[in-house]
């Protein structure tokens, strides 16, 4: 069974390479290495293909090979919490500047599967702080991530707590806008990846890369649907975000401005202390 599971994990990683167009061999190896069953609990598992209209179906186990597909796996179905779609995370992680030894903060880590993927991709010398607000998920993440000693799991509210300076901040729940504390945590050249979502329409994954000055590079990578990041939501901004995304999908966004300025024609979505802009960074 061990060999069969390893073969399934390798096939899964190669499938993700194809589906997500992965360029990073480190990411492919991470998906081929990390045991997903360690992070989703014991069978039976509730599984769903997000590209189909069918509801979750049950896999009785104990064979974990059905987990090695591009599917969602429920962690708490009543609250809509799942393990995430592997191809989406593979696609957006491939756009990051992942490198050995970098400092990472993962907000809303859940049980830690994608934290482990990042840990494998950047190696054992990269300090990673995994933050989760739900006490039950914190306990599960600590146990599951114990194989990666470079990862520290912290119980806390990622919308309020002080964050260490980081080369990468990733949020795994939907915010209507970038929080100042997330941006302030970025080291020079650091990146922020999070889903911008609203209650009024589809959302999208935003990648911000810190530049010198008050304008950082920014772009939307792909569409996304996530549970809400409590504390990072504003209904009025959410309505404007939904309208802007329905207009053009965020394609014109080139930068995130943090300078004080009046709303102007180049502003794609203007907020207080931040603005997604059509202007090039710098």
Please give the largest β-sheet. Answer: 10 strands, mixed
The poorly predicted ranges are: none
Return Rg in Å: 19 Å
Number of helices: 8
Question: How many beta-strand runs?
Answer: 14
Give the N-to-C terminal Cα separation: 55 Å
Overall outline: globular
What structural class do the secondary elements suggest?
Answer: alpha/beta
Element order, helices and strands?
HHHEEEEHEHEHEEHEEEHEEE
Specify the helix fraction band: 25-40%
Into which percentage range does the β-strand content fall? 25-35%
Strand order of the largest sheet: 7-6-5-8-9-10-11-12-14-13
Mean pLDDT: 96
Structural account:
It is a single chain. With about 280 residues, this protein is an alpha/beta fold. It has a domain at about 1-85. Helix content is about 30%, strand content about 25%. The strands form two sheets. Strands 7-6-5-8-9-10-11-12-14-13 form a ten-stranded mixed β-sheet. A four-stranded antiparallel β-sheet has the order 2-1-3-4, with no helix packed on it. Helix 2 (about 25-35) crosses helix 5 (about 115-120).
In brief:
This protein has 282 residues and is an alpha/beta fold. Helices cover 28% and strands 26% of the residues.
What attributes does this structure have?
282 residues; alpha/beta; 8 helices
Describe how the helices and strands are arranged:
Elements: H1 2-20, H2 25-33, H3 37-40, E1 45-48, E2 57-59, E3 72-76, E4 81-82, H4 86-93, E5 104-107, H5 113-122, E6 128-132, H6 135-144, E7 151-155, E8 166-171, H7 180-184, E9 186-196, E10 203-209, E11 215-224, H8 235-248, E12 255-257, E13 267-271, E14 274-277
Helix pairs in contact: 1-2, 1-4, 2-5
């Amino acid at each position: 069974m061990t060999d069969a599971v390893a073969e399934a994990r390798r096939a899964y990683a190669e499938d993700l390479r194809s589906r997500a167009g992965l360029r990073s061999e480190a990411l492919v190896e991470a998906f081929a290495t990390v045991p997903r069953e360690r992070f989703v609990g014991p069978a039976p598992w509730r599984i769903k293909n997000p590209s189909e209209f069918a509801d979750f179906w049950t896999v009785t186990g104990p064979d974990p090979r059905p987990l090695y597909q591009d599917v969602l796996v429920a962690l708490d179905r009543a609250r809509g919490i799942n393990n995430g779609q592997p191809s989406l995370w593979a696609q957006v992680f491939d756009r990051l500047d992942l490198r050995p030894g970098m400092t990472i903060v993962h907000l809303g880590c859940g049980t830690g599967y994608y934290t482990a993927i990042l840990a494998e991709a950047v190696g054992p010398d990269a300090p990673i702080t995994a933050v989760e607000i739900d006490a039950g998920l914190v306990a599960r993440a600590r146990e599951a991530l114990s194989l990666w000693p470079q990862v520290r799991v912290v119980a806390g509210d990622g919308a309020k707590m002080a964050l260490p300076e980081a080369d990468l901040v990733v949020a795994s729940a939907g915010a209507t806008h970038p929080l100042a504390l997330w941006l302030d945590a970025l080291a020079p050249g650091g990146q922020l990846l999070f889903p911008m979502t609203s209650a009024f329409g589809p959302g999208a994954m935003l990648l911000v890369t810190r530049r010198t000055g008050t304008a950082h590079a920014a772009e939307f990578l792909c569409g996304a649907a996530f549970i809400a990041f409590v504390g990072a939501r504003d209904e009025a901004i959410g309505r404007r975000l939904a309208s802007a995304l329905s207009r053009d999908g965020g394609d014109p966004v080139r930068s995130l401005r943090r300078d004080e300025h009046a709303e102007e024609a180049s502003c794609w979505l203007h907020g207080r202390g931040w603005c997604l802009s059509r202007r090039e960074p710098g």
